[in-house]
Design goal:
The chain has a three-stranded antiparallel β-sheet. The radius of gyration is 15 Å and the shape is globular. The chain is mainly alpha-helical. The longest helix has 14 residues, at about 1-15. It has helices at about 1-15, 20-30, 30-40, 60-70, and strands spanning about 20, 50, 55-60.
């Protein structure tokens, strides 16, 4: 079952769409330099990315969505 889920996830990764640094920065409302800084931080921060070459980096729409959900704080769920 886990293997099936991994294959479905891999297929979704290929078909789910990809963002450039500039596109993602606009979508999440940060400067592109922020994404670049997150990528080079130690430890690496920000959403998962794929470095295709020294000058080409892409972000999977699926990975970005998962990353955003993992950082989401719902007011009703905040501890007091």
């Amino acid at each position: 079952m886990t293997e099936t889920l991994e294959r479905q996830s891999d297929a979704g990764l290929l078909l789910g769409g990809w963002y450039t640094t500039e596109e993602l920065a606009e979508i999440i409302g940060v400067d592109p330099s922020t994404l670049r800084r997150w990528r080079t931080a130690d430890p690496v921060q920000g959403p998962p990315f794929v470095r295709l070459s020294g000058a080409v980096t892409r972000y999977s729409a699926i990975d970005v969505q998962r990353w955003l959900l993992s950082h989401r704080i719902a007011p009703q769920e905040r501890p007091r």
